[in-house]
Amino acid sequence: MSDKDIKKEQEHEELQENTASAETEGNLNQVDETEETATKDQQDGAAAELAEMKDKYIRLMAEFENFRRRTAKERQDILKTANQDLMGELLPVLDDMERARQAMEETKDVDALLQGLELVFHKLRQVTQQKGLKVMDIPAGADFDADMHEAVTQIPAPSEELKGKIVDVIEKGYTLNDKVIRFAKVIIGA
Does 70 have pLDDT greater than 90? Predict the structure, then answer.
């Protein structure tokens, strides 16, 4: 072979090597571009998911704030009108008391006045019982219960059986739907 042939062959080999390396570099560039695209897609997906989660969080917080305001307003409205029903039922009793007062000014018949007052008192008791108000029944000699009674004072017990027990009730106690709203004031035997 001649020098020209050898040179041509070397050039041809270099050309093939260059082409092969260019193709390899192109493939590597394509792989790099593909990896960059995949990474970019993952980042874009994560950013979109984060944005969606932030939006959901903001909406949830706004919903909760609206709920809180609405319930606070409802609570205030209930407190304003809570006694309306009770007062509506007490108005006839109040009317009866006014009529009884007028009758006391005009008449001298004590028995008729007592009967009228007894009727008004009975009506008042009936209205309060319908609403759940009950008088505590505390007989003398009953055990003292700090959850129901308030000891005002202690006196020497009239008998041995009344030591540490209720001797007398000074002021009645009341429960409203089984919850004590006024403790009975009692005297305890010592």
Answer: yes
> What radius of gyration do the chain's Cα atoms show?
47
Contact assessment for residue 97 and residue 117, using Cβ atoms and an 8 Å cutoff: no
Q: Quick check: 184 and 171 in contact, CB under 8 A? A: yes
Give me the DSSP letters along 79-125. HHHTTHHHHHHHHHHHHHHHHHHHHHHH---HHHHHHHHHHHHHHHH
Strand partners, 179: 176
- Identify the pLDDT of residue 26: 55
Q: Which residues pair with 175 in a beta bridge?
A: 134, 180
> Encoding tokens for residue 49?
């998911």
Q: 136, 173 in Cβ contact below 8 A?
A: yes
The phi and psi torsions of 177 (rounded to 5 degrees) equal 50, 50
The secondary structure element, H or E, covering residue 76 is: helix 3-81
3-class DSSP assignment, residue 138 = coil
120 with 96: CB under 8 angstroms? yes
Q: And the tokens for 170?
A: 């000074």
| pTM of the model as a whole | 0.54
Phi, psi (deg, nearest 5) at residue 110 = -70, -35
DSSP 8-state symbol, 172? -
Q: CA-to-CA distance for 60 and 53, rounded, in angstroms?
A: 10
C-alpha–C-alpha distance, residues 166 and 153, integer Å: 10
Average pLDDT in the 155-170 region?
86
